[in-house]
Design goal:
By secondary structure, the protein is α/β, with parallel strands linked by helices. The chain contains 23 helices and ten strands. The protein has helices at 10-13, 25-30, 36-46, 48-88, 94-147, 150-153, 156-168, 172-200, 202-232, 234-248, 250-258, 262-314, 320-361, 421-428, 451-456, 472-477, 487-496, 500-504, 526-538, 557-570, 583-586, 606-612, 615-627; strands spanning 382-390, 396-405, 410-415, 436-441, 444-445, 458-461, 545-549, 575-579, 591-596, 599-604. Helix 7 (156-168) packs antiparallel against helix 13 and helix 8 (172-200) runs antiparallel to helix 9 (202-232). The longest helix has 54 residues, at 94-147. The structure holds adenosine-5'-triphosphate (ATP). Adenosine-5'-triphosphate (ATP) binds at residues 154, 391, 394, 397, 415, 417-423. Adenosine-5'-triphosphate binds next to helix 14. Keywords: ATP-binding, Cell membrane, Membrane, Nucleotide-binding, Transmembrane, Transmembrane helix, Transport. Residues 52-349 form the ABC transmembrane type-1 domain.
Amino acid sequence: MALPFFWMPLSHAMQPPSPHSSSSPLSGFFSVFRYSQRALGLVWETSRWMMFGLALCTLVAGVLPAVAAWVGQLIVDGVVSAMAAHQAADDPDLRVSITPVLKLVGIEALIIGLIALAQRGLSAQQALLRALLGQKVNVMILEKAGTLSLGQFEDSELYDQLTRARREASTRPLALVNKTFGLMQNAISLGSFSVLLIQFSPWALLILAVGALPVFISEAKFSGDAFRLFRRRSPETRMQGYLETVLAREDSIKEVKLFGLEGLFLQRYRDIFTRLFAEDRRLTLHRESWGFVLGLLGTLTFYAAYAWVVIETIAGALTLGQMTMYLMVFKQGQSALSASLTAISGMYEDNLYLSNLYEYLEQPTKAEGGSLTQGTQPGDGLRFENVSFAYPGGRQVLQKISLHLAPGQSLALVGENGSGKTTLIKLLTRLYHPTHGRILLDGTDLRDWETGALRKRIGVIFQDFVRYQLQVGENLGVGDTHAFNDETRWQQAAHYGMADSFIKQMPKGYQTQLGRWFKDGQELSGGQWQKIALSRAYMREEADILVLDEPTAAMDAAAEADVFTRFRAHSRNKMTILISHRFSTVRSADMILVIDQGQVLERGTHEALLALDGRYAALFQLQAKGYQ
Ligand SMILES: Nc1ncnc2c1ncn2[C@@H]1O[C@H](COP(=O)(O)OP(=O)(O)OP(=O)(O)O)[C@@H](O)[C@H]1O
C-alpha cells in the first residue's frame, strides 16, 4: 500500500523538479527562497518607494494586532475593576470610573484604524506594483525573445518554455514578493503573540505549531504536483491555444468555414480540455480533501487550548481580561501561523514558476556575428564556398554549394519545391550558419560581419513576408527603421514596388490602417500585399544585395512584367538574387542555378542552359508549351 503523502520527508515534498534542484534536504527546503531575492530585486528596480512603503505597512500590520490584543485585555480587566469600584462606592461618579476604560477603548480604536490603514496601503501598493512588475517582466521576456536565433525559435521545447513564461511568470514575481512580505508580517505578529502567550505557558506555543504543520506539508506537496502538471502539459496547452487561434482568427476562418472544420477542431479542443480537466479535478479534490482533514487538526488543537484557558480562568489563575486576550491571541496566532505556512508553500510554488521564467531568460544566446563593418576585399561581392547545411536534428538540405556573385550581377535560383532555395537565402542573411563551408561578403566570412552592417547591405522579401496590422506607410517603414515615419521615403519605395497607385486611392492614403484587426482597417488583395512587401525591400536604400523569393506569385502578368522592368532598372549596380518558378522571369539573369535536392544540378545563362538541353531546358519548354 502506498504511504499517504505526508509520510514523505519534508525535503522530498519540497524538492523542485527543476534542473537546479539540489539533493540535500536542507537546501531542498531553502530552495523555497531561491528566487525571493531575485523577485525582491525586481521590485526594488521597479519602485524603491513602494518597496519601502510595503516594508513599513508590513511592519505596522504585523506588530499592531498583538498590541490591540493587549489593550483588549486592559479594557476587560479595567471594566471588571471599574464595575467593582462603582458598586463599592458610597457616592458613585460614573464619569470617574469609566474615563480610564474609555481612554483605552479610544486607543484600541486608533490601533484598529492604523491596522486598516496599513492594510489598505499594502493592497494599494500591491495593485500598482502588479501592473508595473507585470509590464517589466513581459518586457524582459520579449527582449529576450529578440535575442534568440531563428533556430531557437523553431525548437519546440524552447517555444514551450517561452509560452509557459508568458502565461504565468508576469504575475509570479509580485506574488512571491507579496508572500515574502506577508510571511514577514505574520512572523512579526507571531513573535509578538508568542511574547504574550509564553507568559501563559510554553506548551501553548507548541500546541499552536502542531495544529498548523500538517496543512503546510500537504500544501507544499500539492503545489509541487500542480507545477509538475503545468510543466508536463504545456505542449497540450499550446495546442489548445493554437486551435483557439485557428477557430477565431480572420486569416484562417475562411478555410475553416469552407472545409467545415469547426466541428472537428472544436471536438479536438474539447478533448484536450476533458483530459486536462480530469487531472485538474483529481488534484483539486485531493488537495482540498487533505486540506480539510488536516485543517480539522488545527481546529481541534484550538478548542483544546480554549478549554485549557477556560479551566484556568475558572480556577482563578487568569483574570477575565487575560482569558479574552489569550483566546484572541491563540486564535489570531493560529491563523498567522497557518498563513505563514501557506505563504511558504505558496512561495515554493511561485519559485517553481519563476524557475521556469529564469530558465527561459538564461537561455544561452550566441553572440551574433563579429565586429567588422567592411570586408577585406571591398567589391568582391558574394561567395559561397562549398556550403552545406542541415537544420538542427534534420538531414542535409544543402550540399557543397559554391558560387560567386559580383556587384552588378544577377542570380536566379530555380528548382523543385523543397530543393533548398529559401534555405540558401536564410544562410545568406545569416539567419542560420552553414554546417560546412563558408559564405563571404567582400572577402570576409559572414560570421565576422557586425550584424547591423551586414543586414544594412541586404534587402530581402521572403515568400511568407509579414502582413503587419499597421498603417500602409508603417508597413513600408518597417523596411528601414531609420525611415519608419518618413513619408517621402515611403512614396519613393512604393513607386519602385508599384504600390503607389493603389495606395493613393485608399481613404487615408499612407495613413490607412491595413488588415481587419483594428478599426477602419482595409484588407488588400494577395497581389497588393506582395507589392507592399516588395516596396518594403526597396526601403533598404543602402542595400546592395537584393533578394526576392517568389515576389510575383500573386501578381497578374502585366504587373509581373512591370515589377521586373523596374527591378532591373533599380538594381543595375547591385547584386540581385531571384527565386521564381516562372521561367519567363528568370531568363534574363546573368547566372541561373538549377538546384535539385540541395545540390547544384546545372548552372549558366538561359541560352547556355537551353543549349545544354538538360533539366532547365526541359522545364522551360514545358512551361513555354503551356502558354502556346
Ligand atoms: N525550419 C526548418 N526546419 C527544418 N527543416 C526545414 C525548415 N525549413 C525548411 N526545411 C526543409 O528544408 C528543405 C528545403 O526547404 P526550402 O524552404 O529551402 O525549399 P525551397 O526550395 O525554397 O522550396 P519552395 O520552392 O517550396 O519554396 C525542405 O525539405 C524542408 O522540409
